[in-house]
Each structure stands twice: as C-alpha cells, then as structure tokens.
Amino acid sequence: MLVNFLLLFFTALIAGSLAYFIPSWQERYFKLILVFAGSYLFAITVLHILPELFVGTEDATKMGLYILLGFLLQQVLELFSSGVEHGHIHHHGHHHGIESGVWTLMIGLFLHAFLEGTLLSHDGMLVAHDHGAHEGHHHHHHGSNNLMFGIMLHKGPEAFALVAVLMSALKKRWVFVLLVIFALASPLGMMLSSALFDQELIGRGALNVFYGMVAGGFLHISTTIFFESSPDHKFHLNKVFISILAFALAISFEFLS
C-alpha cells in the first residue's frame, strides 16, 4: 500500500509541476493525452471495475443505483471543479472573489480524488465474496495493477490542468501548496478507507457503495472527455487511433498479464 501511496502522490505532483515549466504547451497534444487517458479509464471501468462490482454483490439493482448516483455526484462536483478532472482548462483571471472560486475548485477536485483512492484500499477489495476466491484473487492481482495504472493516467492530466488553472489566479508558492494537497487526496482516500475497514468501522457493503459511485464518476469523466475532444462532432482519425491504442493496452493488461 505504501508503494501505491507514493505512486499516486508523485504522479500528481510531477505532472502538476510540469505546468510550471511548460508555459507554452500545445493544447492539441494535451487533448490527445486526455483522449488516451479517458479511453483507458473507460476501458478499465467496463472491463474490470463493473464486472467485479456486479459479481461481488448480492443485489445487482442496488449496485446499478450506486453507479448511477456516482454519475450524478460527478456532475455536482463539476459545479465546483469546473471540469478540471477531465482536463478542462479555464482561466479564472485576477478579479474580486477569486479566493472563493479557488476553494470551490479545490473542494470539488479533492472530494473526487479522495473517493477515487478508495478503489485501491487493501489493493482493491472488489473481489467476489465467496465464489472462486483463489482464482478471483489471482485475476484481481493483475487487474488491480491495471486499475492503478489507469488512475495514474487520469491523475496526470488532472493535476496538470489544475496547476494551469491556478497559475492564472495565484502566486506560484500557493499553487504548489494546493497541488500538494490535491496530490494527497487519493492516497488519503485509499489509506482512510482501508483503516476504517480494518477497524470494522465500515463493512464491505459500505465500500461497495463507494466503489459503485467511483465507477459512475469514471463513466461520467471518460465519456465527457470523448464528447469534448470532438465538439464539432467530426471524425478525427488521430483521436480514434489513440482510443483504440488505449483500449488495446487496457485489454492486454487485463487479460494477458
């Protein structure tokens, strides 16, 4: 778990720090990175998270409800974050009330990242309860690595977009402080949910609610990236190729590793 903590933290920290040193970054290249990350996130949600959620629950209808609630919750969080979690870079500018705008942005983004981290508690506890325990654990060991990689791919552009937005509103030292806070969100979600489960303060049912809601959030974010990458609804061969490449990589890691 310490390795996952460090990977999550430094992925966000390093990716966010790049925005300091690449002031003239090309938006079209950033969008292609977003398409790859969004495609990969969508693939692991469909291939890994959703199947294990439905196999590991006694009430598939309730799990579907949690996923739907997570989808809707992500829409609410984006009222605070303005879509930074799917790479939407906007500039606040220096104006009256910017402090409240920054804090609502950070609250929305922190909550999203915190919930995201719960998926990795106990190296992921999405394994079905009773049936196929040994085989399921073996499959999940590889699948959890795939899930970790997908979350890291998501966190990189997210952190970069956050810093790019904050740089237009705050001094660099404060931007770095907020970047560190954001980088800690997912690791803290992972550690806290794991600790609460160990202390029997929450059960597997509560964790499954979190997992379902995070899966719904992933569906919202990844599909939004697809729609925003082609606002003119035209066919873009390079974006289709990037998506196919991401799908192929996710499939390979899920089934062949």
From TrEMBL:
Top-rank taxon: Bacteria
Assigned keywords, A-Z: Membrane, Transmembrane, Transmembrane helix
Stretches that traverse the bilayer: 29-51, 174-197, 209-227, 239-256
PANTHER family: PROTEIN ZNTC-RELATED, ZINC/IRON TRANSPORTER
The protein's name in its UniProt record: ZIP family metal transporter
High-level lineage: Bacteria, Pseudomonadati, Bacteroidota, Cytophagia, Cytophagales
